[in-house]
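Q: What would this complex look like in 3D?
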Amino acid sequence: MNTLRFIAFRLLQAIPVLLGVSIITFILMAATPGDPVRLLVGDRASPETIALVRDRYGLDDPILFQYFTYVKNLIVGDLGASLRYRVPVSQLIAQHYPVTLFLVIYTIVLTLPPVVFLAVWSAKRQNGPADQVIRMLGVLGLAVPVFWLALLFARFFGVTLGWFPVSGFGETVPDHFMHLFLPALSTAIWVVPILVRTLRSALLDEMNRDYVLTGHSKGLGERQIFRTHVFPNSVLPTLNLFAVIVAYLLGGSVIVETVYAVPGMGKLMVDSILARDYFVVQGATLVFALTTILVMLAVDLLSALIDPRVAP
Amino acid sequence: MSTLLEVRDLSVRFGQTTAVDGISFDLEKGASLGIVGESGSGKSVTCRALMRLLPPAAKISGSALYDGADLLQMPLPQLNQIRGKRIAMIFQSPASHLDPLMRIGDQVAETLRKHTQMRGQEIRDEVLRLLDVVRIPDPARWARAYPHQLSGGMKQRAMIAGALACQPDLLLADEPTTALDATVQKSVLDLLAQLRREQNLSMIFVSHDLGAVARVCDDLLVMRRSKLMESGPVSRVIDAPQHDYTRKLIASHPDRLTLRPVAEASTGAPLIEGQGLRIRYGGRSLADLIAGREGGFVAVQNADLAVRPGETVGIVGESGSGKSTLARSLVGLVKPQRGTVCFDGTPADPTGKGRVAYLREVQLIYQHPYEALSPRMTVARAIAEPLRRHRLCPPREVKDKVADLMEQVGIPTKLADRYPGQLSGGECQRVAIARALAFDPKVLIADEVTSALDVTLQAQVMDLLLKLQKDRGLTMIFISHDLGVIRRLCNSVIVMRQGQIVESGPTGAVFDNPREAYTRQLIDAIPHLHAGAA
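A: Here is my prediction, written as structure tokens for the whole assembly.
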């Protein structure tokens, strides 16, 4: 019951956050130079046509009035319609969102096993050669920009070797896995070192805790102490960073999706900004914000599940 | 009786430093051996060396024959069969020695799973029985609890239950009561003494507190600077100590301590006064506001205290009773929600305007001397800081003033350029006292200043405070959880419990005729030094 109340309260808190996000995007879009109507009707349209279109979309109303109309529609679940595609924004999001979600989860799946393996490996051999190599590779992975790595991968694995397709999303689920492998891999290479470093230092901290000594005094043996005491305690600090990274992956999808031409939310967002497609940008931003809030909530619940001291 | 453990020439070295230097002793089956000494004397290291629980940097030599096998030489898998099963260990701070993410019951069961054939329901029943043996009420409920939900005493009991799980022959207890309040300490000691009698448990009990050791043990080892000073039956060592150091150790016990008499307090108007103080931690969150709760946590409720010039008032209570919070409010470190503080008859506002002038009159000395001093400031600079900052004397005279203060608190001049990290705990506490005295305050508040120190240092610091009070006519508020100390030092005493003052009055009256059952409980828990109590 307490947990349910906690969830309800957190979702309630999400409302002012979403409102704030929508205000900021609205102002930013309105302040961006460029006219959606011009882009919509083309260069040779007559002033009458422009005025007509402008009037139809309500774009000549005062900006504040436009915002309130938008919020009013939002409350009844209407995200508006795309100026470019002339379909409801919700339909566009429903099309693109699963692709990005697939990509993010795929990245996480590719990330976690090496993180756990490498962190445990290097913590158990602190300052040994393996630890040094892992650290150096980590710095390398952090230093190479994602878009550059993505381009190299596409060139090498996609074109030279021809192992993976270099763009698109594919039709069937196995296709999806093939198409998104390179995008997910190039993102994971950047994420893995960060998490390895946190988990490694958490493991080293926990290995020196007093309860490890208690474990030894009970005759439990190194392996059992590590598995049942050290590891669960080390996961907590990493988990919180993980939440931030997942939120970042959603935003970071803009880069890889553009490089690999994956039809996800990131690509939709970039295209819509370039086309001054106000409502799509608004809707996409809100969906990103909502996803971030939900991820944070999920991680908080997970922390509370692991750590009895954290009351949800 | 047969010999259970035979230790010969045990030495432990960490690089260049020798932590234990050639210790030998025997432990009979069913006997109980106490090891006492001040911090850094090597008593804990000795205890841990027997179980090979020291970091890899430690070089252990000598032999420790247990049942004919040398604990120090046997391969690790064989040792792991003995650890927990034949020899068990309990530690100083139960809070950090329990895994915070694991239920108490599971932590007790760990040993059973590892060393016995018991499984499933059998283990659950045995865990409940063990928790009952260590007198944890309602074992079924607490077995499912996590360590943070237990009080300090309960945690230590749970640790003991885990150690007893496989009915070991030998229990190594490494300062098991040091981190506990006096009343809890007494109950844990009683439990250990009882377990010894009922289960015929052999025990090695390490402590800096001679009183605690005397309660549980028959034999005693006194260690100092990694060497064995003296050994023998407890009664013999206490009644007829042969070594100078042992004599000093015994004389430092609050029970035996001969201190200069406490100065008589004047009968004038109170110098510092708190009226109806109520202190709350934590604000109201949005959720509290909606639910109509007050939120936060009330640390002190409606506390009144009045201290006359030249008087020493003691505040006692167990941890969490709000005694430190009350002291902190008097120097403006926390802001009371309600109530007023008066100084010299006029209302003072320790947190607001006039704070600087007020703090020149009222100074606080903190519990942990190392944490109260900046690690990057030398002794002389730390003491000079208030003089310079408050321009209490012309810059030319700062140096002389610092030297004078150092002399008053008994810090040798050669330590002036040392950093706190290079000093002992007692020396650090003296520096902190000198820094507080630099203000030439009228009121000195000492917040558990002796708790972090060894008995011998504790006696010296107490003596210093009494001397300063006499020389300077200081008014003191002395906070401690140790009634033994309060009794020797204070004119009157205030007993606090759960944020409330439960009893107050002149020290003699409160100690001889406590009105509250709680006060009586506290007084009963004072560790006394009578030989052969076990």
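A: To summarize the key features: The mean pLDDT of chain A is 84. Residues 222-259 of chain A form the longest helix (38 residues).
Q: Very helpful, thank you.
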